[in-house]
C-alpha cells in the first residue's frame, strides 16, 4: 500500500470513505472474511459483535465441529404376512385335530379284535330297515369266566347258565334325541316257535338270536346290533372309569345282592354298582324299579365313560376300552359302523340329548301261564314303536 493509500485508508478518504448505510470496505489486497480472509476489524480497532455476520451467507457446516453419526440400527425382521401366519396356524390346528382323532379312534380299534362274538342273527323274514339305529342291549347273569374269589367279591353265587336280567333298546334317530327303553324281563309276549312266555325265556331257549327275533316280532322294528354284558364285565367297566356316583333315597341292606349302602349320593365301585342294579326283592316296584335303576346306571356310566377326565387320561381311556372289549359280547354281524352308531347313542344319552323310558305298561302283575307277568299297553306301545319306525327324534311324548 502506498503512503497516499495509507492516508486515505486512515482518514477514510476516496474509495475508503463510508457511504451512507455502507460497511467499510476491506483493503483491496485482503479478501472479505466470508471468502476466507481475516476477520474484519471494526471502527478504531474494535472487534465486531459476536454472532452471525450482518451480511453475506451464514457460516457453512465446515466451520462447525462435526459430530460423528452413529451407525444405523440393525433392522428388525419383517413380520410374517397375515396370510402366511394364518396358514401356519391352520396347519398346526389340523395336526392337533388329526392326532386327537387318532388317539380316540386307534385305541378302540386296537382292542376291538378281542371282543367276543356271538350269533345274534335271527335269519328268515325280518322287518324292513328303518331310519336310524336300534340296538338290543342285554345284561345277563352269566358267571362265565369268574373265579371263586371273584364270585365271592361280586356276590353273584355260582349258579350255572345264562339268563337275561336286563333287556333294553337303544334307539338312535337320524337327528334329535336318542332313547334308552327298558323292556321288563317279565313281559308276556309271543316267542317265535314257542308260544307265549316271558320275554327273558327267549334268551334261555334260543340265546341272543331268538331274543332279537322276539324283539323284532313284537315291535316291528329291524334290530341293527346286539350287545351283551355279564356280571364281571359290568363291574370291571365301572371300576375302569373310577366308579359311578348314584343317589339312593333310602339305605339298602340286601344280602342276596351283596349290598349294604347308606342313603344319599355316593361313589359306587364295580361290585357295589352291580349289586345296586341287581337288587329287586326290596324294591317296592320289583322288577320295574330295578329297570329304572338300570337305566339310571347306564346313563351315568355313559356320561362318565365319555367325560374329559376319562378320555384325556391315556391309562383310563385304554383301561375302559380294554374292559369293554373283554366284558361285552356283540353279534357277529356287528361291525365298526354299528359300534359307531352305538357310541353315538351313548354320547347323546351322556350329554343330556336323550331320554330314558319304559315300554308302556298296562298290567304290572298279570297272572299268566308263566306266573306273575307284565302286560304291555298295546295301543301306547304300538304308537311308540311306530314313532321309532318313522325315525322321530323325540319319544318323550310316548313315555
Automatic annotation (TrEMBL):
<dbReference type="InterPro" id="IPR004474">
    <property type="entry name" value="LytR_CpsA_psr"/>
</dbReference>
<keyword id="KW-1133">Transmembrane helix</keyword>
<feature type="compositionally biased region" description="Pro residues">
    <location>
        <begin position="68"/>
        <end position="82"/>
    </location>
</feature>
<feature type="compositionally biased region" description="Low complexity">
    <location>
        <begin position="32"/>
        <end position="48"/>
    </location>
</feature>
<dbReference type="InterPro" id="IPR050922">
    <property type="entry name" value="LytR/CpsA/Psr_CW_biosynth"/>
</dbReference>
<comment type="similarity">
    <text>Belongs to the LytR/CpsA/Psr (LCP) family.</text>
</comment>
<dbReference type="Pfam" id="PF03816">
    <property type="entry name" value="LytR_cpsA_psr"/>
</dbReference>
<feature type="compositionally biased region" description="Basic and acidic residues">
    <location>
        <begin position="141"/>
        <end position="153"/>
    </location>
</feature>
<feature type="compositionally biased region" description="Pro residues">
    <location>
        <begin position="49"/>
        <end position="60"/>
    </location>
</feature>
<feature type="region of interest" description="Disordered">
    <location>
        <begin position="1"/>
        <end position="87"/>
    </location>
</feature>
<keyword id="KW-0812">Transmembrane</keyword>
<feature type="region of interest" description="Disordered">
    <location>
        <begin position="140"/>
        <end position="159"/>
    </location>
</feature>
<keyword id="KW-0472">Membrane</keyword>
<feature type="transmembrane region" description="Helical">
    <location>
        <begin position="92"/>
        <end position="115"/>
    </location>
</feature>
<protein>
    <submittedName>
        <fullName>LytR family transcriptional regulator</fullName>
    </submittedName>
</protein>
<feature type="domain" description="Cell envelope-related transcriptional attenuator">
    <location>
        <begin position="163"/>
        <end position="305"/>
    </location>
</feature>
Amino acid at each position: 500500500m502506498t503512503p497516499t493509500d495509507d492516508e486515505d485508508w486512515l482518514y477514510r478518504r476516496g474509495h475508503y470513505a463510508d457511504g451512507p448505510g455502507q460497511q467499510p470496505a476491506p483493503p483491496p489486497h485482503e479478501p472479505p472474511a466470508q471468502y476466507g480472509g481475516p476477520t474484519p476489524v471494526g471502527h478504531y480497532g474494535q472487534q465486531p459483535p459476536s454472532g452471525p455476520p450482518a451480511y453475506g451467507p451464514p457460516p457453512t457446516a465446515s466451520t462447525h465441529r462435526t459430530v460423528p453419526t452413529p451407525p444405523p440400527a440393525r433392522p428388525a425382521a419383517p413380520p410374517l404376512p397375515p396370510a402366511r401366519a394364518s396358514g401356519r396356524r391352520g396347519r398346526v390346528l389340523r395336526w392337533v385335530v388329526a392326532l386327537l382323532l387318532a388317539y380316540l379312534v386307534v385305541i378302540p380299534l386296537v382292542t376291538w379284535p378281542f371282543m367276543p362274538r356271538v350269533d345274534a342273527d335271527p335269519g328268515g323274514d325280518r322287518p324292513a330297515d328303518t331310519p336310524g339305529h336300534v340296538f338290543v342291549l342285554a345284561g345277563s347273569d352269566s358267571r362265565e369266566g369268574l373265579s371263586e374269589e371273584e364270585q365271592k367279591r361280586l356276590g353273584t353265587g355260582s349258579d350255572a347258565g345264562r339268563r337275561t336280567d336286563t333287556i333294553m333298546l337303544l334307539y338312535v334317530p337320524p337327528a334329535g334325541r336318542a332313547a334308552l327303553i327298558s323292556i321288563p324281563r317279565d313281559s308276556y309276549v309271543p316267542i317265535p316257535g314257542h308260544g307265549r312266555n316271558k320275554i327273558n325265556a327267549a334268551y334261555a331257549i334260543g340265546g341272543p338270536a331268538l331274543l332279537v327275533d322276539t324283539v323284532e316280532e313284537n315291535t316291528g322294528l329291524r334290530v341293527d346290533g346286539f350287545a351283551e354284558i355279564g356280571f364281571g364285565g359290568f363291574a370291571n367297566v365301572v371300576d375302569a372309569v373310577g366308579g359311578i356316583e348314584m343317589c339312593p333315597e333310602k339305605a339298602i341292606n340286601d344280602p342276596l345282592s351283596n349290598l349294604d349302602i347308606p342313603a344319599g349320593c355316593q361313589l359306587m365301585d364295580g361290585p357295589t354298582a352291580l349289586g345296586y342294579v341287581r337288587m329287586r326283592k326290596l324294591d317296592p316296584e320289583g322288577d320295574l324299579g330295578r329297570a329304572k335303576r338300570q337305566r339310571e346306571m347306564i346313563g351315568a356310566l355313559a356320561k362318565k365313560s365319555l367325560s374329559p377326565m376319562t378320555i384325556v387320561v391315556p391309562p383310563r381311556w385304554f383301561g375302559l376300552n380294554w374292559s369293554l372289549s373283554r366284558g361285552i359280547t356283540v353279534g357277529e354281524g356287528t361291525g365298526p359302523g354299528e359300534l359307531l352308531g352305538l357310541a353315538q347313542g351313548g354320547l347323546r344319552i351322556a350329554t343330556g340329548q336323550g331320554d330314558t323310558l319304559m315300554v308302556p305298561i298296562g298290567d304290572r302283575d298279570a297272572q299268566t301261564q308263566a306266573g306273575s307277568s307284565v302286560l304291555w299297553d298295546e295301543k301306547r306301545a304300538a304308537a311308540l314303536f311306530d314313532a321309532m319306525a318313522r325315525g322321530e327324534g323325540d319319544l318323550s311324548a310316548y313315555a
